[in-house]
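User: Could you write out the 3D structure of this protein bound to 1-[(4S)-2,5-dioxoimidazolidin-4-yl]urea? I've included everything you need below.
Assistant: Certainly. Input first, then the structure.
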Amino acid sequence: MDMEQVNSMDFGEFVDVFGNVIERCPLIAAAVWSQRPFSGLEDLEKHFSAFIDALPQSGQEGILRCHPDLAGRELQRGTLTAESQREQSSAGLTSLGAEERLQLAELNARYRARFGFPFVLAARLRDRDAVLRELARRLHRPPAQELRTALGEVKKIGRLRLADLLGGDPARL
Ligand SMILES: NC(=O)N[C@H]1NC(=O)NC1=O
């Protein structure tokens, strides 16, 4: 898909294609569509990012709450989005042993109790040991700093998903 094709999409097509760039937040793609034409992948990514940055804290936390837990109930039930399933699988989270799954569930619950939103991290960029390490590390950080980090991870996930859709190199975004 090239930018000319992206820029010629009507609203419905655009939201169909880019609606899950930010997990379960098609509203963001709907808002970004009005900013077309886009000069390239980087430009498109900037618009997603700017929308997130412009939200009040309640909206930013809402975005985080739209994310499924890593190796959580949705994975067990098979109800993850296709993108999330692929990402969690690439970090080895779909093949955890019972003990690791329990450890992750316990840390996820502690994280959610402390911050009020789920632990979010770009799973494709880590293996399962790194996921556990990061979770244990971020659990103790000040809430304002943690919100910033978590939103940074949402943007990384979005950048990788955009690069998948547009055939770009995410490292060069
Ligand atoms: N909780 C969480 O980080 N979920 C996300 N991470 C990722 O890479 N895909 C997701 O759905």
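The chain has a mean pLDDT of 95.
User: Perfect, thank you.
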